[in-house]
Automatic annotation (TrEMBL):
This is LON peptidase substrate-binding domain-containing protein. Residues 6-227 form the Lon N-terminal domain. PROSITE patterns: LON_N. It comes from the Bacteria. It holds the Pfam family LON_substr_bdg. InterPro entries: Lon_prtase_N, Lon_prtase_N_sf, PUA-like_sf.
Length: 249
């Protein structure tokens, strides 16, 4: 088993390989992370700026900065693990995704605008909160195609196109982005998982599927069920096929 140690960025969303993640970084712990990433890999360097994204199971994406309810005198938590309890490992889902930050732009107020892309799934082994931000020991996971992934991908693409049409009808607009849909099974599985209007636990389930075929089978069932539901729900939100919602960290 080979592991890597990377900065850890917990979010209330799931990042999939190949998908773009915009971040608005304003908390000091994550500002420190971005400063270190830029220092280790300047703009003229070819070295990737890698950190790991995990979905939060129990905790707060943004730590409280001021006293509030129920105790107005309580001192807000500080430090790398603020908002995640005494054992941060228990606050996060165990399967996450490495992100490569192509753009890290510092604003005048010291916050950062970041554009990252998911690359590889990882298994979270341990979390270290001793520094200015969380770091984690991670095992990179290979993508197993499973059985009949190609045929399943074709079925999922057909179901996804039908799902898109239903969404467009519910919104009374077109969801077409002008982009070609992929045909490589693992890429299809991640794109559909990210683009479908699903809650975080469901997206997390898809991320941690044991192989591509299993993920595609699950998606086929979900798309058929969601398409049937949309017929009676005229106001579902539209989605972008490659970009997740901007996180306020």
């Amino acid at each position: 088993m080979t592991t890597v140690r990377l900065p850890l960025f917990p979010l209330n969303t799931v990042l999939f390989p190949g998908l773009v993640l915009p971040l608005n970084v304003f908390e000091e712990r994550y500002r420190a992370m971005m400063r270190d990433l830029v220092k280790a890999s300047p703009d003229d360097s070819d070295e990737p700026r890698r950190f790991a994204v995990v979905a939060i199971r129990d905790g707060h994406e943004v730590a409280p900065a001021e006293p509030g309810l129920p105790d107005a005198t309580a001192v807000p938590e500080r430090g790398a693990a603020a908002g995640f309890g005494s054992d941060p490992l228990k606050s996060f889902h165990k399967i996450g995704c490495i992100a490569d930050a192509a753009t890290i732009r510092e604003r005048a107020d010291g916050s950062f605008e970041v554009l990252a892309t998911g690359t590889t799934r990882v298994l979270l082994h341990s979390v270290d909160a001793s520094g200015p931000y969380l770091t984690a020991e991670l095992e990179e996971l290979e993508e197993d195609p499973g059985d009949e992934a190609g045929a399943l991908a074709e079925g999922v693409l057909r179901a996804f196109r039908n799902y898109q049409k239903r969404l467009a009808g519910a919104r009374e607009r077109s969801l077409s982005t002008g982009a070609e849909l992929p045909d490589e099974p693992s890429v299809v599985s991640y794109l559909v998982a990210a683009a479908a209007v699903l809650d975080t636990p469901t997206k997390q389930r898809l991320l941690q599927a044991p192989d591509t075929a299993s993920r595609l089978r699950d998606e086929l069932k979900l798309l058929r069920a969601e398409t049937a539901v949309i017929r009676n729900l005229p106001s579902l939100p539209a989605v972008d096929l490659t970009r997740g919602p901007t996180s306020m960290n």
